[in-house]
Structures are given as structure tokens and as C-alpha cells.
Design brief:
29% of the residues lie in helices and 21% in strands. The chain is α/β, with parallel strands linked by helices.
Length: 451
């Protein structure tokens, strides 16, 4: 039986999407014949593999972290959508819903039959292929909150690339890049240190004996100062590495292959490893990694052109749907669970077990998420449900957000049972109803994170 007979025609085409600073790249995978390649627009200079978010201002760099600033919200009776995000030191601003719509219009060009979409080698892509996608896998940066994945799903659905929210999934950028580099079917343990822009992402993968573990961590800065410019950058990196090893149970000595990629790899003390001479972002990095991972074969990859850097992540993303489940994958995101608790918890007190039973009766595998549910009931508000003041400082004065921030909707009684706080519960129900009522997803569905 050949491979093509194993994949239904309706599931043949999968698109991987990777975002940069004001640009995006995509890769298309033919699941029937296990082929994948980057897509671009034909131009006299060759395929244009990095496309702008905003075709009216294609040279404008926009930090992709803006998409995690909150959820798109349009208050009734007003003309300004929320949250209003700022960048470029506060010199530029725009409503986040407008940025999502702009990106959606840009992505919609993939469905335009009059545009000459080609592979990286210049082979034309039939328009019917890009109108027959079965899944879009979006790569997200680490760290980022669930608002980022939710907003990118909105942009993909607004573009009409697929019809249903369940056809949009996500994967961490570091994992996608590691899969693209190490191969989708390799065995053993590998690691990735990847610095693109102001985020250093660390990823460990262990694929042995039917076990797939992916551990992810990110060091990020919300200002022009890179996290690598800290007083003791090696200490910060070592702390992040130790966190990953503890989280995954992977000993550094087990790592067999290590890729150092992007700006962090452009170091003068790595010239012997075929990296170009450049100022060393972390002095002694090579020596540290050799001591930390003594059994790893190290590969140094200096910053490639932006389309290539984005393209590798997009290619890796297309392989994720065929990967066995990762041990760290969760069935539901916190937004979905938060909304489910708002729906099932009322003023009458309930024990945790009673509440879990009600969620299970609604088809939610609540006991698999017991810890997350308890955290939400104890007052944790998932990041991104309220605007991030770093990117949307002016939204803090909006009366709707002020009412939401005044208190959590769930009460823990002295008996240990839980109930809905009437005022806060009403505010949260009304707010999320308006957010998801205007969503392209329509029905509230969990954002499908394959990591």
C-alpha cells in the first residue's frame, strides 16, 4: 500500500504559517506524497517568500508580540475597538482588531486566483490547491499567551483559508524549527537555541521508546534592550536551561544534537564552528554549551535572510499534524475552561467534584484538566483576557476593563465549595459574550495547541 492511499483527498493539503516583524511566510505540504515546500509570489527577482502584513504599508515593521496584547473587543455604542495597542516607543498605535483584520486581508491573497503563487523553485501552484486546505498550523512564539493564538486563528478564518476553527491549530515556533532541522521522524534527544529579534527561545525534544516530550522556554524583553544584554546573560541562560531540564526530565548529558540559531549564533568565538566573525552576544557561550551538553554535536547557524528563517518554522509546522501526541499537550486552553466555568457555575455553591461532573456531562474531559480548573476557581485570570498594559496602556482606563479587573468571578467559600460572584460573573459573561459573539469561530472552541 503506497503512502498516497493512506490520506483522504480532502485532507491532502496542509499549510504552515510563520510570522515575523511585519511579514509572514507559508509552507505547503502535500500529505499524500509527503512533500513540502515554501510558497511565494512570482517576481522578477525570484519568488517573494516573505509577504507583508499590510500591503498598503509593506515596509512597516510591526512586532508580532502585539497579537498577544488582548482579545479583540468592540464596546457597544462606541466607534473605537479595543484594545488599542502601541509600538515604536508609543509613537504608533492602532486598535488590535484592525491589525487582525489587516493580517486577514493579507493572508486572503493566498486564495486570489489571479496572483502567481509559486514554490521556492518557481513551480506554479494551482489556485485550486490553496482553496482546498484541510488545516492551517500557525507557529507562535514562546513566551506568548493564548490571546496570541486566538487572534491568529481569527486572522486565518477571516482570510477564508479554512472554514472551521477546528481546522486551525498551533505549535510553538521552537518546536517547529527543531522538527524542520532534526527531521520529523528522528529519534533521540535534541535541543534548539533560537534568537530571532528580541526573543531567545529554548526547546528540548526527546523522542524515545514511544515517548515524545517537548519542553519550551523563552527569554523576552518588551523594550529595545535584548534579554541577552542582561548583567549576567549566561546565568539567565543557565537558569532557563535548568528549568527546561527539570520540566522535561531530560538530563543535559542526554542531548545528542544541539542547534544554535539566529543572532545568538553570530559570534566571533564560534568561527571554528563555521559561524561568521561578529560581536559575541554572550561571551563564552560555546564553552558553556560544551560543558553543559558534553555529548551533543553542535551546529551553529548564523542569522539567515528573514524569509529563510520564517520558512524553516513554517515547514516544521506542516509536519506537526502527523506527529504522535506530545506529552505536554493539553486538551483545552485556559480561555475555554474559564468560559466553561462561567457557564456551569452559578450562585448555588458546588463542590469541585460536583462541578467536574457537570463539565464531564457537557462533554468536557474536566478531570484531565483538574489542576488548571482549580487554579481558575482560586482566582487566576488567564493572561490576555485583559489587555496587556505593556502594549495597551491606555486600555486600563476603559470602564469595561476596569470592571473586569475589579474582581475574579469565582468565589471559594469557607466550606471549600465554589460559587459565582454575582457582579463580577455578570461582567465577565457579558464581556466574553461580546468578544466571541463577533468571532469568526462563532461557537466557542478551544485553540488547538499541538505542543
Amino acid at each position: 500500500m503506497n503512502r498516497s492511499s493512506l490520506v483522504p483527498a480532502a485532507d491532502r493539503w496542509c499549510l504552515g504559517l510563520s510570522l515575523g516583524a511585519g511579514t509572514w511566510s507559508v509552507a505547503l505540504r502535500d500529505r499524500q506524497f509527503d512533500r513540502v515546500g515554501l510558497l511565494g509570489l512570482r517576481s522578477p527577482e525570484g519568488p517573494q517568500l516573505a509577504l507583508p502584513w499590510d500591503w498598503e504599508s509593506p515596509s512597516t515593521p510591526l512586532p508580532k508580540a502585539l497579537f498577544g496584547a488582548g482579545l479583540a473587543y468592540r464596546p457597544p455604542g462606541t466607534t473605537t475597538a479595543q484594545p488599542v495597542v502601541q509600538w515604536d516607543g508609543g509613537r504608533r498605535s492602532a486598535p488590535l482588531p484592525v491589525l487582525i483584520e489587516t493580517l486577514g486581508r493579507s493572508l486572503a491573497r493566498l486564495r486570489d486566483p489571479h496572483l502567481p503563487w509559486v514554490t521556492a523553485t518557481g513551480k506554479p501552484v494551482p489556485p485550486v490547491v490553496l482553496r482546498s486546505l484541510s488545516e492551517v498550523v500557525v507557529a507562535y512564539p514562546v513566551p506568548s499567551c493564548e490571546a496570541w493564538r486566538s487572534n491568529l486563528r481569527e486572522a486565518v478564518l477571516a482570510a477564508g483559508l479554512v472554514a472551521r476553527a477546528s481546522q486551525v491549530s498551533s505549535v510553538a515556533e521552537g518546536l517547529a524549527a527543531a522538527i524542520a532541522w532534526d527531521g520529523p521522524r528522528n529519534w533521540g534527544c535534541c535541543g534548539l537555541l533560537d534568537q530571532q529579534g528580541e526573543i531567545l527561545q529554548l526547546t528540548l525534544i526527546d523522542r524515545d521508546f514511544g515517548r515524545q516530550v517537548a519542553a519550551l522556554h523563552g527569554l523576552a524583553a518588551h523594550n529595545p534592550v535584548s534579554p541577552l544584554d542582561a548583567i549576567d546573560p549566561l546565568d539567565a541562560l543557565n537558569g532557563a536551561f535548568n528549568h527546561l531540564c527539570s520540566q522535561s526530565g531530560i538530563a543535559p548529558q542526554k542531548i545528542e544534537r544541539l542547534l544554535v540559531r539566529g543572532a545568538i549564533a553570530a559570534s566571533s568565538d564560534l568561527a571554528q564552528d563555521h559561524a561568521p566573525a561578529a560581536p559575541d552576544p554572550i561571551s563564552g557561550l560555546a564553552q558553556y554549551l560544551r560543558q553543559k551538553c558534553p555529548n551533543a554535536i553542535m551546529t551553529w547557524e548564523p542569522p539567515p535572510p528573514a524569509p529563510i528563517a520564517l520558512g524553516r518554522v513554517a515547514i516544521g509546522a506542516t509536519h506537526i499534524p502527523e506527529q504522535p501526541p506530545w506529552d505536554s499537550a493539553q486538551p483545552y486552553d485556559h480561555y475555554f475552561l474559564f468560559a466553561a466555568l462561567l457557564r456551569h457555575l452559578g450562585p448555588e455553591p458546588q463542590s469541585l467534584e460536583q462541578l467536574l461532573d457537570r463539565l464531564e456531562q457537557d462533554g468536557i474531559h474536566a478531570r484531565a484538566c483538574r489542576r488548571s480548573i482549580q487554579q481558575l476557581l482560586e482566582g487566576t485570570i488567564p493572561a490576555g483576557l485583559l489587555p496587556d498594559p505593556t502594549f495597551a496602556p491606555g486600555s486600563a482606563t476603559d470602564p469595561v476593563y476596569q470592571a473586569l479587573a475589579a474582581g475574579a468571578p469565582f468565589l471559594r467559600l469557607t466550606t471549600g465549595w465554589y460559587a459565582l460572584e454575582a457582579t463580577a460573573g455578570t461582567h465577565w459573561r457579558r464581556y466574553l459574550g461580546r468578544v466571541w459573539g463577533r468571532s469568526f469561530a462563532r461557537d466557542l472552541e478551544p485553540t488547538f495547541d499541538r505542543t
